[in-house]
Amino acid sequence: MAKSVLVVDDEPNIMLSLEYLMKRAGYEVRLARDGDEALASVMSSPPDLILLDINIPKRNGYEVCQAIRSNPDLKNVRILMVTAKGREVEIEKGLALGADGYATKPFSTKELAERVAKLLNGSEA
Amino acid sequence: MIERLSLRARIFLFFALIAAAVPLFFGLGLWMAAQRIGGDATPHLVLFGGMAGFALIGVILWVWQMFDLNVARPIQSVARDLQTLMHANPQHAPDTKATRYLGLLGPVISEIATTFTDVRADVAKEVDEATRSLKDQRQQLEAILRELNEGVIVCNASHRILLYNRRALQILGVTEEMGLGRPLFSILNQQPFILTLDRLTSRYLEGRYTTHPEYLMTNLVFAKTDGSLILEGRMNLIVDEAEKSITGYVLTFDDVTEELKGLITSDRLMRSTLEELRHPVASLRAAVEMLQEIPDSDAEGRRAFDKVLSEESTKLSNDLDQFGNAYREIVTSQWPMSDVHSGNMLNALTRRYRDDESITCDVTGDPIWVRCDSTTIVALIDHIIRKALVELDCDTFLLQGREGNKRTYIEVTWNGEVASPSMLERWLGEPIERGLGLCGAEILEHHKSEVWCEPAADGMARLRIPLLPPSKAHLVTTSTAPLAIRLEFYDFNLLKPEQLGAIAERKLRDLTYVVFDTETTGLEPSNGDEIIQIAGVRILNGRVLTGEAFDYLVDPGRRVPPLATRITGISQEMVTGKPKIQDVLPRFHDYVGDAVLVAHNAAFDMKFLQLKEDLCKVRFDNPVLDTVLLSAIVHDHTNQHTLDAVAERFSIEIPPETRHTALGDSLATAGVLLKLIDLLEVHDITTLGEAIEASNRIVEIRRKQAKY
What is the pLDDT of residue B500? Predict the structure, then answer.
């Protein structure tokens, strides 16, 4: 069965590319435009991985991340934070709140696809 | 002639004159009577005349005695009483009984004496009070200077240091070069000071200061002579209004090296990044616009532009990363920060809750050093604790500093739920009490920081505030240890105008001295003996500045013989690993500056110093005085001029435990020097030139004596 990926971002232009990129890699792709939508989507059917932007409306990425991590049923969900915030202290905060990885915008789509694949195969923790 | 005799003697002479006149005029009168009356009457005349004469002389003697007892003596005693009263004992009461025959003189003198005593007592009381308030003010000034977080240096108009505080030493990172009476420019670059002083001086002399918004003050940026620090400060003139002249200036300053460096770097980064981003963005925009123009059929043309898009977007992306990395390297923000001891900061915070029964707050773990603006960080933690108290219903808080890899952390742990990121965001959006009008998010932004809250053991929650590591390594004791003894940090006597003229003509009293002593492995420097300890104290305006002492053990790079250890108490273990003479002697050279060098048997110590001059790349060409020779000048009756003997002669105590330590002997020698300067004046030796000349004569005499 194909792995599922939830792309959470409020920038339609980057979502277009991410959706295409993930589909081409063979994943089943869902989209969410804000924190509430993202959590609702996760609750209804947990994805295998979330590409999570931090600056999203309603609940920010940190909040979504902590909500998912505080629910033991969702412990298998991988979270890759994707954000324009690139300071080390922000990366540290993201990882402290339970993210599995961190990618700073702008990124190479090729590398991002590789990291998603690694996370889904459990080789990047 | 007669004025020089005492009052009593003069009165006696008067009476003696009268007494002498009695037989003379009686004899003459009777003799003339005998001529008229004839020879028969002579025996009667002699008998009665003689009797009357003796009786008269007797009366004169008696009157003289009465006069002497009741007039002359009392007057003398009154004079003596008044003298005692004036010069020695203000409580002295004049003897009123003696003056009972002198009419009103006695009572009047008693009255004068009483009034005088009262006035004296009043004056003494006033002086006492003034002295006490002066002392209080001095202590307050000292306390203020000590606690001030800015460096303070006060200089006279010729840029010599009159005052400095502990913070100034810390900021400048100097100890040896800083000293009262020393030139400022041995530490700091002189150009900014000369220019700024000129500017302020003309502002003062031309009277423009009265309307100037900064009055007699101005900002200046200056640097250490070695260029290691850039400092920002303010110069404030001290003027003599009566003389219309400049007495000196107060300099307050802070180290802004890092702030300035950060500002300059970020400015440069901003400019270069803007430029560099324009290139790929220009290429991208042009390529996209061209792509829209090119027909689909021209596959080759489109491929060329696709290549441009791909190349330039990669380049743009890389440039951004580089910019981000470089920006991250600029650790300091424009918000002023300093190294803070977490213990001090967090304990200050817990004191706020001491009287609040709803909050239990303690500091735990080992204290660490963090770099932050403690005022706003403390306000932020306080705000978070109070929010958690209300919104998360917890009442016990633990505060802890923790060192991380690249950062330091302040952690707040509480017995309650984790604060969610959105909750924290809301807390941080509120204005903070005592937070300088900032909200939490702004405080964190100034520190380039973020906070988050994560679950901790036993159902507790832990909030972490990452902060910068300290700008330099701190020992826990840094703030107090090296300067623990009370220092003579200032000497306002230096405010007197600088003595001019060649140093030889300067008064011994006015010179600055460094009295020093060395302990060595033996007595023969030319035969491999080395210095193992060197110490010195500075004398300024007749005062030994014990707080500015120089005291170093030196690794001689050779074995310390047992005899040396027995005399000096310095063992091999004590000197192994200590700084070498190459490190210590240049520091001593800095410490000495342009002072006159003094030592007991200076020739010996100077020999050791001079043999090391080439190795240490310093030269000691200061004038030198030897207390052995000076002692020989004033005490030429004896040959005993050892330090012990001379000190004993002057009643200077050398505690046995400090004898034969370099610092102890330096202090004793300094005491000896001060006494010698007093005695040399009696011998009409008052200038340095005269002292050196007299010393040279003693050397010559001794050399001749040695020949026989």
Answer: 35
Same-domain check for residues B444 and B457: yes
Q: Are residues B87 and B229 in the same domain?
A: no
Q: Give residues with Cβ within 8 angstroms of B533, minimum separation 6.
A: B518, B519, B551, B552, B553, B554, B568, B570, B575, B661, B662
pLDDT at residue B192 in the model: 86
Rounded distance between C-alpha atoms, residue B487 and residue B164, angstroms: 10
**Inter-chain contact B422–A87, Cβ cutoff 8 Å?**
no
pLDDT confidence of residue B89: 63
Task: Compute the distance between CA of residue B217 and CA of residue B41 in angstroms, rounded to an integer.
Answer: 111
Is A67 contained in some domain? Answer: yes
Taking only the tens place, the pLDDT of each residue in A9-28 is 988 888 888 898 899 989 99
- How far CA B13 is from CA of B6, B17, B288, in Å, comes to 11, 6, 135
Is A97 an interface residue toward B (CB < 8 Å)? yes
Pairing status of strand B230-240 against strand B245-255: antiparallel
B316 touches chain A (CB under 8 A): yes
The residue to which tokens 């460094």 are assigned: B514
Q: Does A114 touch chain B (CB under 8 A)?
A: no
Give the percent of chain B with pLDDT over 70. Answer: 91
Does the beta-carbon distance from B450 to A88 stay under 8 Å?
Answer: no
> Residue B69 gets which letter from DSSP?
I
Q: Flag whether residue B648 sits within 8 Å of chain A, measured between CB atoms.
A: no
Q: How far is B466 from chain A, CA to nearest CA, in Å?
A: 7
Residue A65's pLDDT is what? 92
For residue B526, the one-letter residue type is S
Domain count, chain A: 1
In this structure, chain B runs to a length of 708
**Residues B295, B197 within the same domain:** no
For chain B, give the mean pLDDT.
82
Say how many domains are in chain B: 5
In this complex, do A104 and B324 lie within 8 Å of one another by their Cβ atoms?
yes
Among B147, B176, B201, give the residue marking a domain's end.
B147
Instruction: Output the pLDDT for position B484.
Output: 31
Domain that residue A94 falls in:
4-120
Q: Of B403, B431, B411, B332, which Cα lies nearest the Cα of B372?
A: B332
The predicted structure's pLDDT at residue B515: 95
- The domain boundary, picked from B147, B179, B209, lies at B147
Residue of B159, B188, B150, B152 lying closest to B247 (CA atoms): B159
Domain range holding B14?
1-147
Q: Are residues B224 and B368 in the same domain?
A: no
Residue A125 falls inside a structural domain: no
Burial grade of A13 (CB within 10 A; 0-12, 13-18, 19 or more) = exposed
> Quick one: pLDDT at residue B17?
92
**Cα–chain center distance at B629:** 31
Spell out the residues 6+ positions from residue B238 whose beta carbon is closer than 8 angstroms to its own: B154, B246, B247, B248, B249, B250
- Which stretches of chain B drop beneath a pLDDT of 50? 475-501
Q: Which residues of B touch A108 (CB under 8 A)?
A: 314, 317
Two tokens, residue A93: 């905060």
Q: Are strands B396-403 and B151-156 parallel, antiparallel or unpaired?
A: unpaired
Averaged pLDDT, A90-108: 88
Q: Which residues pair with B281 in a beta bridge?
A: none
Dist. CA B593–CA B622, nearest whole Å: 8
Residue A49: pLDDT band (50, 70, 90) is: very high
Q: Residue B133: inside a domain, yes or no?
A: yes
The string of pLDDT tens digits covering residues B412-448 is 999 988 898 889 989 998 888 776 778 888 888 888 8
B487 within 8 A of B175, measured Cβ to Cβ: no
H helices of B148-208, where?
166-172, 191-205
